[in-house]
């Protein structure tokens, strides 16, 4: 079966996720700079999560261009990824509203971990469908970057109970690692 509907549905869900996140930003009551200060953690968590959702959308887009077809397993794996991405607005709001408290930051890291694992599963199922010698299979290889990210998320969850800002710094570092779209897929598609 073709991949067009999967791409369109995924794009729509991701657009809704971003919309929900921005709607969670509450307008302050007041017109001076002091009214913005309490919103600092909320805004920081929004920016970080917006970047993460953007990274997933961008890499999902590249991955979809590297394949030619989907099957039922791919559809379910994609829904699994979208499920975990759909939890990002909740954990973003919780983390920001509670000024990066320990439990919300740990849960945020847990959701990021599950998003990464779900993306990895989708990638694996697509490679199984198209073959290891497909453009996606050749581009991804052993996918050390994803495994490193998962390790950093888990470390961030543990570090939360030492100091939540250490975890937040790790989450920012992972986002910076992925900020530029995965060039491996682009390189294989251009050949």
How would you sum up this structure in a few lines?
With 191 residues, the protein is mainly alpha-helical.
How is this fold's topology laid out?
Blueprint: H1 4-23, H2 40-65, H3 72-86, H4 88-97, H5 102-130, H6 135-140, H7 144-159, H8 164-178, H9 183-190
Helix pairs in contact: 1-2, 1-3, 1-4, 2-4, 2-8, 3-5, 4-5, 5-7, 5-8, 7-8
Describe this entry's structure for a reader:
- The protein is mostly helical and 191 residues long.
- It has one domain (4-190).
- Helices cover 76% and strands 0% of the residues.
- The protein has helices spanning 4-23, 40-65, 72-86, 88-97, 102-130, 135-140, 144-159, 164-178, 183-190.
- InterPro entries: TMEM175-like (IPR010617).
- One of its GO terms (molecular function) is proton channel activity.
- The chain crosses the membrane at residues 12-29, 35-55, 75-95, 107-126, 147-180.
